[in-house]
Write a structure and sequence with these properties.
- The longest helix is centred in the middle third of the chain and has 19 residues.
- The chain is of the alpha+beta class.
């Protein structure tokens, strides 16, 4: 069966990517009647505080994004910050998501802002028939190894340490393969060494390498 551009191929393989700090900020804007704004500020919305509900639903949505968007990877979220601004005729929701992981978190931020906006819509739909969700937008995203290196102007350095009582460095095929893979990923290989398979020796070498690198 021939493949095509429309054929579903599955999730993107991120197994070879590095974990870096990723962040994304998304925005959702609802237009409401001025009377609705006054109702919110006076705490008279029948279903309760839209600010509390929006924040809670936004956090929940971030955690469930991979369940809702088929090809999103499950991401271990480190931070979710939700800001709900009530203005005359306008409700603005800003969601910032952070994670140290292999993929970006823009879908988590967008999903979070969307669900928060829908939650607000649900809470106000009986009191404001003209209300509408006008905008859901990604404002910014950051992260990834290239951006991290560009921002810090640093060179990634690595050492390959192999524990073996039977191999010399010139016989160490696995170590050479590790050097090859790391070099292709942009690492400067500071050292490639074979040491005795002894816990104290390995510990001493690891401490030395960490200090020197």
């Amino acid at each position: 069966m021939s493949s095509s551009a429309d054929e579903v191929k599955g999730m993107v393989d991120v197994s070879s990517k590095y974990e870096t700090l990723r962040s994304a900020t998304a925005q959702a804007i609802l237009h409401v009647n001025p009377e609705t704004t006054a109702l919110i500020k006076d705490g008279k919305v029948p279903k309760g505080s839209i600010v509390d509900a929006a924040r809670l639903s936004a956090v929940m949505a971030v955690k469930r994004t991979s369940d809702l968007i088929p090809f999103c990877h499950p991401v271990p979220i480190d931070s979710v910050n939700v800001d709900v601004s009530i203005q005359v005729g306008r409700i603005e929701i800003l969601v910032e998501v952070k994670a140290v992981w292999k993929t970006g978190v823009e879908m988590e931020a967008l999903t979070s802002a969307s669900i928060a906006a829908l939650t607000v819509y649900d809470m106000l739909k009986f009191t404001d028939k003209s209300m509408s969700i006008q905008l859901i937008k990604l404002l910014e995203k950051s992260g990834g190894i290239k951006e991290a290196l560009s921002a810090t102007d640093k060179i990634l350095r690595a050492a390959v340490l192999v524990a073996s009582d039977t191999r010399e460095k010139n016989q160490d095929l696995s170590g050479k393969k590790a050097v090859e893979i790391l070099s292709k990923k942009g690492f400067h290989i500071a050292e490639h060494k074979v040491v005795r398979d002894d816990a104290k020796t390995i510990e001493r070498e690891l401490v030395r390498l960490c200090d020197e690198l």
